[in-house]
Amino acid sequence: MDLFQYKNAVLHCEDVSIESLAEKGIPTPFYLYSLNTLKTHYKKVYNAFGALQPVICFSVKSCNNVHLLNELAALGSGMDIVSGGELFMVKSSNTDLSKVVFAGVGKSEEEITDAINSGVGYINIESVQELQRVQFIAGNLKRETNVLIRILPDILDEKTNEKTRTGYKGAKFGIDYAEVKLLIRDNHDHPYVNIRGLHCHIGSPISSYTFYEECINKMVQLVEELKAENIFLKVLNIGGGFPANYTDNDNFSWESFAGPINRLLEPYVKNEGFKIILEPGRSISANTGILVTKVLYIKKSGDKNIVIVDAGMTNLIRPAMYGAFHYIWPVHPDVAHVLAKRNYPVEQEGLVKYDVVGPICESSDYLAKDRELPPLQQGDYVAIFTTGAYGMVMASNYNLQVKPAELMVDGDKVYSIRERETQDDLIRKMVKSEL
Ligand SMILES: *Cc1c(COP(=O)(O)O)cnc(C)c1O
């Protein structure tokens, strides 16, 4: 659930009418975030795993606006980063850097140096050579640094999109489970690089808690085997990948999802002082945002109704890239088509089947295919829901489209939190100079 609801037949974000925003002359498309949805979802995730007193490291790659990061940091959130750029963003925010975890298979020497100098909480190690490089750099800097070993657990949730699976054998992420024990045994007493524990992220979104159970069991087995050799790990980072509500008809319950995970990990927290880290992204940010777009043209193509809107794959690439489903509905439907719940399929009379497409010259530029919607007209504003995660962060300038603005609502107040790009921005860096 989120705070995007129809009031008097008009879609509101918290107490703000989205129609009034569009009519104020804010150019479409734009992203709009609900601050109180962000906060509620952070608390939902924290409370679900509250028995573990976890450190929540929000996945910055899912949604990276510094103002939203500051709001999460104020609630106590740490950050999960995957690049030097994200490290820079997090350093520009109010985040406590000791609550930052740094993952990614291809960290450069500069990124590792920056992470160590910045005092990030943990670097997640994804290969043997990376560990060696971190040891070398930390040794040169004479700075202690804490790391977690990211295991590749050989776990596959077949329901996860092929393009967002990370934990199967042969994936590029982490270190083969079978190699990890020896690696830790050989490296646990390095003078500058402390191996504090294990990390795992099995993909997203993960459809059932059972995959986390499977993964945690593998992590715990390693912990126990190493303990028998007097090597004591104290941190388990179980990653992210918790689901978001892309429709209202999933009966997801945080209680039944997190309960079994808590029961597995609680003894380690209560009896052995383990620190548990979670890296939720979409479960916090996805429902926080919508993309508002306008109908430019409607036409027929064969027997298809094509509705062309001013947002495309350069604003939201998930449908084109993953075949992802995003709920779409007009901002101000006629009374017969006001939506109480975002269930799909929609049980209403008088809907029309549309392909919703963007302006990009690329045949994959679809936002939805064969989607039943209320009859649309040129100029209608349309909301694309659950786009707070992997929306704006994946926006591009393809076709020389400018990146859209980001707005944030808090109650009845609206803030601009990122200006729309200008066409000058598109050529600003094209400076010719002889080298
Ligand atoms: C992407 C990512 C996450 C977040 O995934 P969500 O599905 O958004 O929760 C967490 N950890 C790592 C290492 C990631 O790459």
From TrEMBL:
GO biological process annotation, one example: lysine biosynthetic process via diaminopimelate
Gene3D superfamilies membership: Alanine racemase, Lyase, Ornithine Decarboxylase, Chain A, domain 1
Domain Orn/DAP/Arg decarboxylase 2 C-terminal: 31-388
Main enzyme class: lyase
CDD domains found in the cross-reference section: PLPDE_III_DapDC (cd06828)
E.C. no: 4.1.1.20
Subunit record text: Homodimer.
Protein name: Diaminopimelate decarboxylase
